[in-house]
Amino acid sequence: MTKKNKSQKRLALVENDPWLESAEQNLIDRLNRYNYRLKEIINTYGSLSSFADAHKYFGIHWDKNAKGWYFREWAPAAFDLFLFGDFNDWNRTSHPLTKKENGVWEIFLDEKRYKEKFVHKSKFKVLVHAANGWKERVPVWINRVVQDESTKDFAGQLWQPAKSFSWKDDNFKINEIGNLFIYECHVGMAQEKEGVGTYVEFVENILPRIKKSGYNCIQLMAIAEHPYYGSFGYHVSNYFAPSSRFGTPEELKQLIKKAHSMGIAVIMDLVHSHTIKNINEGLNEFDGTDHQYTHPGERGNHPNWDSKVFDYGKIEVIQFLLSNVKYWLEEFHFDGFRFDGVTSMMYFHHGNTTFGEIEKYFTEGVEYDAITYLQLANTLVHKIKKDAITIAEDVSGMPGLCRPIEEGGIGFDYRLAMGIPDFWIKTLKEKRDEEWWMDDFYHVLNDRLPDVKTVAYAESHDQALVGDKTIAFWLMDKEMYYHMQIDDNNLIIERGIALHKMIRLITLSLGGQAYLNFMGNEFGHPEWVDFPRQGNNWSYHYARRQWSLCDNPNLKYIFMYRFDVEMIKMAKENELLSAGYGSKIANDEENKTLVFEKGGLMFVFNFHPHRSIFGYEFYIVEPGHYKIILNSDSPEFGGHNRVDDSRVYTSMYDSLSNKHYLKVYIPNRTALVFKKEGK
Fold this sequence. Notes:
Elements: H1 12-16, H2 24-45, H3 48-51, E1 59-63, E2 68-74, E3 80-85, E4 98-99, E5 104-110, H4 111-114, E6 123-130, E7 133-137, E8 145-147, E9 154-157, E10 180-186, H5 199-213, E11 217-221, E12 224-225, E13 238-242, H6 249-261, E14 265-270, E15 301-302, E16 307-308, H7 315-332, E17 336-339, H8 342-346, H9 359-362, H10 368-384, E18 389-392, E19 414-416, H11 419-430, H12 438-446, E20 454-456, H13 461-464, H14 471-476, H15 491-510, E21 514-518, H16 547-551, H17 557-573, E22 583-588, E23 593-598, E24 601-606, E25 613-619, E26 625-631, E27 648-650, E28 652-654, E29 659-666, E30 670-676
Parallel strand pairs: 10-11, 10-21, 11-14, 14-17, 17-18, 18-19, 19-20, 20-21
Antiparallel strand pairs: 1-2, 2-5, 3-6, 4-5, 6-7, 6-9, 8-9, 12-13, 15-16, 22-23, 23-24, 24-30, 25-29, 26-27, 26-30, 28-29
Helix pairs in contact: 2-10, 5-6, 7-10, 15-17
């Protein structure tokens, strides 16, 4: 570790965390790199926002003064570029682009000549002659890409509807929705039909469900165009084009506008961590080299994801990515981003190591340029939309990830608590119920720094994908196919539903300042997610959500759904997510019971497989009269109705300890939430 210059002011990040003292100069260097790059951008472009306007220059644009279309690409190493498409009967070489300064190529299509030929929905591509040969490419900066149903070939499409989209009446304010309850969604698989869902169907069928369930933020996956549907949207080809398989750009805008009108924020799952290898689609070798947008040679290959790694030190790449950030915020009114693969971005080893030593965060394998890019991205997001949300998918625990940049941080608002779902799956997979350790539960769920806002979740899409199992599937497996009828008593199902409710409640209660759920998991969706592929005969059967199971009053899925609704409602009404850490009251390993206070509420969890406890005593923070406001054993949630919800529990005084306590009955595999009357 390098030493801090004595004349330099101590960073706030270090003042708050003495563990970082030995790395203070590294943090100062991190801040200096950001300031240097920002100053460089401002000196050249006037502002960071102006720098991020490249999408208004590159690609296809109408010039009202020149009365025609300009098309521009950046391809510094290319020999020749040609524009071809419907407008010239797909003649590949009749319309050459002219090379300008700094590797920019340009062509102008005059309105007089092309008024009837180059119109809304016209298809076109770019022929690139370079060191790798003659390649037909989809334009890099295009905002609309369509696929030919017969040939499966992708092409750019001129998108210029006669009437521009109206955002009138969209006065949505992100900061007015309170704590974030995030519903992670995939538009294509959101419907029950065996096929690809659309933006329109999502508005009609899914948004009302989300609203009714109490979630106030949706996280949309797979928005940017991706040629392989089964990639879940994580192998992006066209960064400025919303996926046409779900509908038109206007239909996506209408989805966001409608969500806003319902008081629901919309954040985008943004994939700037890597890019596809494809030559026919995407950025790879666009100008004939392996280092236009990505690192050259082996460093440019992502070993885990079969993709390419951006060169975040290249000013043109930074401009491309930042312009992409600005585009989605301004053009589509997204309320922020979940930045995918942040751990992979910040280290050349992509996170394939163990963390803990301070050197791992500042010297060994650290991708400084990527961190600078993330700092710039966070700065830009909050300049454009002050209250916008940025969430980092990071598992490494990078210091300062969610602290202001001027303090030595990276500037994210939240990080995903990726260790929590891993913990639950490991627990369910490797330990019998009798081996569960309450102290482990409490420690894992509280394992975060006080100044790092965290998105807690029991499971996301990762656990739902084929090859893994959801919590419901780990708990109940094949029994879900045969014993989910209301009148079917099955011990495996009974255990599964009870623990499904408890795991989600304790995760929400202790895990962070925001909560996330993947669509369908709230009612224990019985099947994994598997997109059409050769291995499943190109079937859409598992790439959908079976809402009818939850809607059927004769099936037990409704129990888990009802509990989720009431759980979210309870958390909202009591502002639970903004109440800080929980305060542990009792950690009873013998009885597998955990009691804690948070936000003025008392939480009692009995995870014991069979031991119900009469007259269980635990200390309380405030004396008074308490009522149960949430009971996982309630019959409406599939429980056994062993606790009287109407009863008032009056605190008692223990003179020996000088503390007040409650005495309650806590059945096995039950969670109870108590609230003091008058609060």
